[in-house]
Automatic annotation (TrEMBL):
The keyword Signal applies. It is found in: Cell membrane; Endoplasmic reticulum membrane; Endosome membrane; Golgi apparatus, Golgi stack membrane. It comes from the Eukaryota. Keywords: Cell membrane, Cleavage on pair of basic residues, Developmental protein, Differentiation, Disulfide bond, Endocytosis, Endoplasmic reticulum, Endosome, Glycoprotein, Golgi apparatus, Lipoprotein, Lysosome, Membrane, Nucleus, Osteogenesis, Palmitate, Phosphoprotein, Receptor, Repeat, Signal, Transmembrane, Transmembrane helix, Transport. The keyword Zinc does not apply. InterPro entries: Sortilin_C, Sortilin_N, VPS10, VPS10-sortilin, WD40/YVTN_repeat-like_dom_sf. It is a single-pass type I membrane protein. The lineage of its organism: Eukaryota, Metazoa, Chordata, Craniata, Vertebrata. This is Sortilin. CDD domains: Sialidase_non-viral. It comes from Lates calcarifer (Barramundi).
């Protein structure tokens, strides 16, 4: 296969040390490139920024630095792109010697910029209201919360001593505030809410340590009043009422972290006491209050550190992460059922255990993720999957009895992680294009210049090679439009001259390779989660089967930007595997049946929900959130309202600062400890695999856990 007219070079007359890229809008072809050069000089920074703009997916750029008046842009705040296709852009400038700062705003996809002087210095990147992009909120460097309702033209101070701020839903802002003027006094903060941009503010919880958002759930870690212990409280009504989550309390050296969440359930990591580097994953019911143990010894280094937890977005219900095994070796495990069971990754066919394997019989695939990059292993990219590239996963890994520190290879799965092939020798940068119809990769070679890009049209089985230049460049990264629908990929790097280095961007348009549009005959039907075709329930996951139309591996054609995933869901009859164990029940070893906890037999099960005491009548089962099974076995359960009030003494009745109201918070009356038995693979069986909508996760490109613009989750320290 040959590519013609593909490569367009752009040489930046620029000596800057770093470059930031941002795509503005979906399918617009607009890219902004911000280069930054800075040096520390005594107590101040001296720096220079240049701004470039492309309208053709990076094939050419125009120097538009004059639009920002040659101002030094603070690269740590990046390029703030507005939600959806608003075309809004914010750049935060560094103004030396002043008490405020300056931003440059654009509402026309970066064609023009207007500068706005700020009456404060930002502490963080300015954040957009997800539902109204002209409304902005930010914290200043002295912890004041500022808000603008006109895209930065005018600002008003909403509150002093704000420690953390997050956008909720429907114009709601949540923030934690200190009563004594210091954010270091953790555990004594107030959680406040405004739904009218600060005109009225309501305190919804106090004595909080931190808070986070996940799906429709609002979480607060709250001091228990017993030493330094704190517990998670959860609200599904914007903080009006609270339930205590059925999770273990943590001490001051531990943390909670929301790994993933949507409107129906939550994955929560609870750190173990001591500096162990691991904890336990729990999954919630649909109320966010009852939690089942999912995975023990889950690798998660110190607070704000690194975890390998990965949501495989290309197939429903699949998650991959790492455990710290006995002997402190790191091993990869996968769950295909939303955290119900975790198993090792299957060894690729015809592969051999690496030389580090102590036991050649216990050999499986282990994937590198954020922990490996934090340990500075030779891993240039995290695992990659895309919702519109069904079943595809690309990742670095090794085959053995644990993750190896030796040079990794690139592995590809085309069925959501059930089976794998070794696709490329050695570490690579890779990208998914054309909804999975095309994979591209460039060898990771920090010390040697490169001039070749590899490409595959059959999901990684065979690779072609294209020489994109006769004059190799020092490669720094691949850049393709988010969403994996584009046919363009840009290779970024630099060349050395006698006196300096300068940036090079080479954009390849693979539309010249895939010249034919895909037709119906190019697609084949595929049953997801199929591992036993003789079983009538083969493919059943969370109560239904899904058949997809997928591109044939031998079809060399273009899916196109408008390609949509075609799926045919079919409900399955209900079995006990479609249910969680209810309050007071647990699953015995190797059994699907839920049995009563011995210490609770014959006792009336009462619990507190929404401020009222309720009695539970149950046969021991509760439907998994998001499960769509029909008919079959349907255990009965009902809740009887006892018409008694129940309130928590942990989150006491409180008043708002600007509008008077009473908030009654809730505590579960009887803390019911679920017990779970160990299966053969030493993973916990709780059948808590339960949602339909894609889960959002809180991983950034470098794998760190932090809040960012397309994720509502956070570390609850």
């Amino acid at each position: 296969l040959s590519i013609v007219r593909c490569c367009l070079f752009y040489t930046f007359n620029d000596l800057s040390g770093s470059v930031s890229l941002a795509w503005v809008g979906d399918g617009t072809g607009v890219i902004l490139a911000l280069t930054t050069f800075q040096v520390p000089f005594f107590m101040i920074r001296l720096g220079q920024s240049k701004l470039y703009r492309s309208e053709n997916y990076g094939k050419s750029f125009q120097d538009v630095t004059n639009l920002i008046n040659n101002t030094f842009i603070r690269s740590e705040f990046g390029i703030a792109i507005g939600p959806e296709n608003s075309g809004k852009v914010i750049l935060t400038g560094d103004v030396s010697g002043g008490h405020g700062s300056r931003i440059f705003v654009s509402d026309d996809f970066g064609k023009s910029f207007t500068h706005r002087d700020l009456p404060f210095t930002p502490l963080m990147q300015i954040t957009y209201n997800p539902d109204d992009s002209k409304v902005l909120v930010v914290l200043s460097n002295n912890n004041e919360m500022w808000l603008s309702e006109d895209f930065g033209s005018n600002w008003k101070k909403v509150q002093d001593t704000v420690c953390l701020v997050k956008w909720g839903r429907k114009n709601t802002i949540f923030f934690s505030a200190s009563l004594n003027g210091s954010c270091s006094d953790r555990g004594m903060l107030e959680l406040r809410r405004t739904t009218d941009y600060g005109k009225t503010i309501k305190t919804v919880a106090n004595k909080i340590y931190s808070f986070g958002l996940g799906g429709r759930f609002l979480f607060a870690s709250v001091m228990t009043g017993k030493g330094t212990l704190r517990m998670i409280h959860v609200s599904v009504d914007q903080g009006e009422t609270w339930n205590m989550a059925q999770l273990p309390p943590v001490g001051h050296e531990q943390f909670y972290s929301i790994l993933a969440a949507n409107d129906e359930m939550v994955f929560m990591h609870v750190d173990e006491p001591g500096d162990t580097g691991f904890g336990t994953i729990y999954v919630s019911d649909d109320r966010g209050t009852v939690y089942s143990k999912s995975l023990e010894r889950h690798l998660y280094t110190t607070t704000g550190g690194d975890t390998d937890f990965t949501n495989v977005t290309s197939l429903r219900g699949v998650f991959i992460t790492s455990v710290l095994a006995e002997g402190d070796s790191v091993q990869s495990v996968v769950s295909f059922d939303q955290g119900g069971e975790w198993v090792p990754l299957r060894k690729p066919a015809n592969s051999k255990c690496d030389a580090t394997a102590k036991d050649p019989e216990k050999c499986s695939l282990h994937l590198h993720a954020a922990y490996s990059t934090s340990m500075r292993l030779n891993v240039p990219m995290l695992p990659l999957s895309e919702p519109n590239a069904v079943g595809l996963i690309l990742a670095h890994g090794s085959v053995g009895d644990a993750i190896s520190v030796m040079r990794p290879d690139v592995y590809v799965s085309d069925d959501g992680g059930y089976t794998w092939i070794k696709a490329l020798d050695g570490p690579h940068h890779y990208a998914i294009l054309d909804s999975g119809g095309l994979l591209v990769a460039v060898e990771h070679s920090p010390t040697q210049p490169v001039n070749r890009i590899k490409f595959s049209t059959d999901e990684g089985q065979c690779w072609g090679v294209y020489n994109f230049t006769d004059d190799p460049i020092y490669f720094t990264g691949l850049a393709s439009e988010p969403g994996a629908r584009s046919m363009n990929v840009s290779i970024w790097g630099y060349r050395d001259s006698l006196l300096s280095q300068y940036w090079i961007s080479i954009t390849i348009d693979f539309r010249d390779l895939l010249t034919r549009d895909c037709e119906d005959r190019d697609y084949v039907q595929w049953l997801a989660h199929s591992d036993d075709i003789s079983d009538p329930n083969d493919g059943c996951m969370l109560g239904y089967k899904e058949k997809f139309l997928r591109l044939r591996k031998d079809s060399v054609c273009w899916n196109g930007r408008d390609y949509e995933v075609n799926t045919q869901p079919t409900p399955c009859p209900c079995t006990l595997d479609d249910f969680l164990c209810d309050f007071g029940y647990y699953r015995q070893e190797n059994s699907s049946e839920c049995v009563e906890q011995p210490d609770l037999k014959g006792k009336v099960l009462e619990f507190c929900l929404h401020g009222k005491e309720e009695q539970l009548q149950t046969s021991g089962y509760r439907k998994i959130p998001g499960d769509k099974c029909e008919g079959g076995r349907m255990p009965e359960r009902k809740e009887i309202d006892l018409s008694k009030r129940c309130v928590s003494d942990l989150l006491c009745c409180i008043q708002s600062s600007k509008s008077v109201s009473i908030v009654i918070t809730i505590i579960i009356v009887m803390f019911l400890v679920h017990r779970y038995s160990v299966l053969q693979q030493h993973v916990e069986d709780n059948a808590a695999e339960g949602i339909d909508d894609p889960l959002e996760t809180n991983h950034t490109q470098n794998g760190k856990i932090e809040f960012h613009d397309d994720s509502d989750e956070d570390l609850l320290e």
